[in-house]
């Protein structure tokens, strides 16, 4: 290998290391800023209207900022369910909404209305199952989401009427305000007992939940 090739390889390696270092520094700054926001406003994580799945008095709380049109949220849903099954008495899930995609706000309001028919969970799961059909980000077809909800047993006519309740709009606006306060910019975003993930990923989420469960049992 001649000296010119060695120089090029070294330069590429230096640039790559500098890029990774810069990304790491940026990520840490974002995480630290978010952690500071959480410490300043813990009430922003869980509100009275928030949907809670699992034991209400669980000592470990996963807060998920969630968009029903988000593919990654859909992919994580079974993983989060498995975590709750693994710790049935220790972990609860709090769902907060981050309707970043077009049409998501309408689906969120329909989900909230589904609570009044005690159909929240089956409707949520059916809407996620049907997500590839209705959640085209450029041209969402919310009607297909409604049809999926009806297949889960929801009285869709009543639900859409209930979805006009100002209380549901107020709850959604509160969620949007909180995600802004906490600097949540993507979905899903998880907090476990108020702590953000060190880096995004299912293994990181499982590790943080296991850590908090172990602490809670001491």
From TrEMBL:
GO terms for molecular function: oxidoreductase activity. The keyword Acetylation does not apply. It holds the Pfam family Thioredoxin_4. InterPro entries: Thioredoxin-like_fold (IPR012336), Thioredoxin-like_sf (IPR036249), Thioredoxin_domain (IPR013766). It comes from the Bacteria. The keyword Iron-sulfur does not apply. The chain crosses the membrane at residues 6-26. Residues 19-155 form the Thioredoxin domain. Keywords: Disulfide bond, Membrane, Oxidoreductase, Redox-active center, Signal, Transmembrane, Transmembrane helix. PANTHER family: DISULFIDE BOND FORMATION PROTEIN D, GLUTATHIONE S-TRANSFERASE KAPPA. Belongs to the thioredoxin family. DsbA subfamily. This is Disulfide bond formation protein DsbA.
């Amino acid at each position: 290998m001649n000296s010119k090739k060695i120089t090029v390889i070294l330069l590429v390696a230096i640039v790559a290391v500098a890029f990774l270092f810069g990304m790491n520094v940026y990520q840490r700054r974002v995480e630290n800023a978010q952690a500071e926001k959480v410490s300043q406003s813990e009430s922003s994580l869980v509100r009275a209207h928030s949907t809670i799945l699992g034991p209400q008095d669980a000592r470990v709380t996963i807060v998920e900022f969630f968009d029903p049109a988000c593919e990654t949220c859909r992919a994580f849903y079974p993983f989060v369910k498995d975590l709750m099954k693994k710790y049935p008495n220790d972990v609860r899930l709090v769902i907060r909404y981050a309707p970043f995609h077009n049409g998501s706000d309408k689906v969120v309001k329909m989900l909230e209305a589904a609570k009044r028919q005690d159909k929240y969970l089956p409707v949520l799961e059916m809407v996620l199952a049907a997500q590839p059909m209705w959640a085209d980000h450029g041209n969402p077809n919310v009607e297909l989401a409604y049809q999926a909800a009806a297949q889960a047993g929801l009285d869709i006519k009543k639900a859409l009427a209930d979805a006009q309740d100002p209380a549901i709009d107020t709850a959604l606006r509160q969620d949007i305000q909180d995600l802004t306060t906490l600097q949540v910019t993507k979905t899903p975003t998880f907090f476990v007992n108020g702590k953000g993930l060190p880096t995004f990923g299912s293994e990181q989420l499982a590790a943080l939940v296991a850590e908090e469960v172990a602490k809670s049992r001491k």
